[in-house]
Amino acid sequence: MGFADRLKKGLSRSREALNEIFYFGGEVDEDFWEDLEDTLVMGDLGAEVAMNVTDDLREQAARENLRTDRQLRRALSERLAAEFCPVGRDPFDDLPSCVLFVGINGAGKTTTVGKLANDARERSIPVVIGGADTFRAAAIEQLDVWAERAGVRLVTRDRGADPASVCYDVLEAAERDGSELVLIDTAGRLHTSSDLMRELAKVVSVTRRRSPMPVSVVLVIDATTGQNGLSQAKEFDDALDLDGVIVTKLDGTAKGGIAVAISHTLQLPILRIGVGESIEDFQRFDAQAFCRALVGEE
Ligand SMILES: Nc1nc2c(ncn2[C@@H]2O[C@H](COP(=O)(O)OP(=O)(O)OP(=O)(O)O)[C@@H](O)[C@H]2O)c(=O)[nH]1
């Protein structure tokens, strides 16, 4: 299955919900707009975005006399795409660059680091991985498997070591080897655990101070988390001042709207998306293509 099909399949829940209201058979009446707003809220877009988008679309439909399913879907997908914060500096393209990956347990950080390392190597970018998840021995082993798969060097320390020291080590190794991209995996943690968030803030500030390259902090978020994803992202942003977001598991049962809610509310760009477990299952984010898949516009 191609990338676009995977994304379409993954976002089918949102699309099916929209299909129900788009089969209105004629009148675009008050019920239609109410149902649209409810459906967008249910699709994890959040109340604020759902209301703004519905109000704008309603005005546009009246102004431009949009009536058909096709016209309305197109206008909706364009309006939703406009909600995304545009990408300014892309930390995986604008080199040299050091990126720290943060997020809750199981969000897909390690997998994402593996995919990005592989992508960089394929583009002949000298890249090194830092394994700063020294909390779990299995995490280091897992990252090692990804590093090997991608054919990229891993710098880490034994379980229990200070994660900030791994950041020092990997930056030193990058300087020595001439690596232009440094990808650092950190231990997963709940955004509600203030001790662990403080520890992570220290890792970030040490890395920012030590790094001769620009440092970006990227939140990896599992799209299937739903609306809780927005509060997660808010907490991480408050504590670490995020630079961007990667949304994973969009091939699963995600509703997808959380990507819109986070990007708009926190004004953070979506840098990449994950659509599967294997090394090539990820993509640059294209807001238009994403919204077409979300809305079911042909
Ligand atoms: N379907 C799907 N699964 C994914 C994707 N990205 C990651 N996964 C799976 O999600 C699970 C967790 O991924 P990890 O990369 O280990 O997550 P992590 O954030 O590093 O987890 P911790 O080390 O516990 O913090 C694994 O089973 C991955 O295969 C994706 O885009 N799609």
Automatic annotation (TrEMBL):
Gene3D superfamilies: P-loop containing nucleotide triphosphate hydrolases, Signal recognition particle SRP54, nucleotide-binding domain. It is found in: Cell membrane; Cytoplasm. It comes from the Bacteria. Residues 95-252 form the AAA+ ATPase domain. GO terms for cellular component: cytoplasm; plasma membrane. Pfam families: SRP54, SRP54_N. Residues 96-296 form the SRP54-type proteins GTP-binding domain. It is a peripheral membrane protein. GTP binds at residues 103-110, 185-189, 248-251. Keywords: Cell membrane, Cytoplasm, GTP-binding, Hydrolase, Membrane, Nucleotide-binding, Receptor. The keyword Nucleotide-binding applies. The keyword Ligase does not apply. Its EC number is 3.6.5.4. Residues 7-84 form the Signal recognition particle SRP54 helical bundle domain. It catalyses: GTP + H2O = GDP + phosphate + H(+). GO terms for molecular function: GTP binding; GTPase activity; signal recognition particle binding. GO terms for biological process: SRP-dependent cotranslational protein targeting to membrane. InterPro entries: AAA+_ATPase, P-loop_NTPase, Signal_recog_particl_SRP54_hlx, SR_rcpt_FtsY, SRP/SRP_N, SRP54_GTPase_dom, SRP54_N_sf. HAMAP family: FtsY. Involved in targeting and insertion of nascent membrane proteins into the cytoplasmic membrane. Acts as a receptor for the complex formed by the signal recognition particle (SRP) and the ribosome-nascent chain (RNC). Part of the signal recognition particle protein translocation system, which is composed of SRP and FtsY. Belongs to the GTP-binding SRP family. FtsY subfamily. This is Signal recognition particle receptor FtsY. It comes from Granulimonas faecalis. The lineage of its organism: Bacteria, Bacillati, Actinomycetota, Coriobacteriia, Coriobacteriales.
